[in-house]
Write the structure tokens for this entry.
Amino acid sequence: MVYSYIIAGELLHIGNNSPTQMENELNFYLGIIIVIVAFVIIATGLALVFVRYQKRLLFKQKELHELELQHKQDLLSSTIKSSESERMRIAKEVHDEIGNIFSTLSLTVNQMQEGNTIKPEELEISRKLIKSGITGVRRISHALIPFELELFGLQQTLENHFETVSSVSIVKFELEINFNLKSLNNDVALAIYRIIQEYTSNCIKYSGAENAWITIGTNEINNMLLLSYRDNGIGMNIEDQKLNKGIGLKNIESRALSLGGTFNVTSELNKGFSSTITIPLTNNTLL
């Protein structure tokens, strides 16, 4: 009743005013109503925009999560394929090389037994076969487990590796080490050695580079081990999925991730290739 009274009072007050004043007051109230309606429309529009933004954000997060899962699956699949390929290669080498050596040696020994006499040339053949078998076993064993790591440590093993690579490659490799590699545990040392092997192998096979630089150092602020690689080769388009999904790069990334690290690549066509790996220096990576 109070509300209706106020309205009536206003109408009465308006009715006592001149037509111009009435029009002004009506325009005033109409303006207020328009402002309120406009505010409601804007608020509703903002709410709709916010809802759409939230939906898009959730969709993007879901998409990124699915891409991350797919990437991890690809890495795992690549690692498994690489391991199986390596096993098949080693099995083939053992079968073809070591198997043939001992088959020939067995034949030679049988011939000696049949003749009841040992000829000097047959004995020499046997010695060569035995020596060749020992060399083959050492080479295959080294491919599986680099014994140099235990005997000489990572730094000396890397220096020996680049000395060997430089003798058979036109690429000039430069290794710079600014960290005490002896403080790393065996698993990390082996992973770094395999990563650098992959870098050098990819460089020789695909880069067309004349020079390549490998640096091992630390970021003391974040307590990280930094491993960087750079060459002046033909580079690559990192947006090209066929190149980006190469087994070599995936092997490097999977090894870095297995140590809790990160793997980043920067490259352009005809502008070389560079890559950085960071590995946290924690109780899990240090002796």
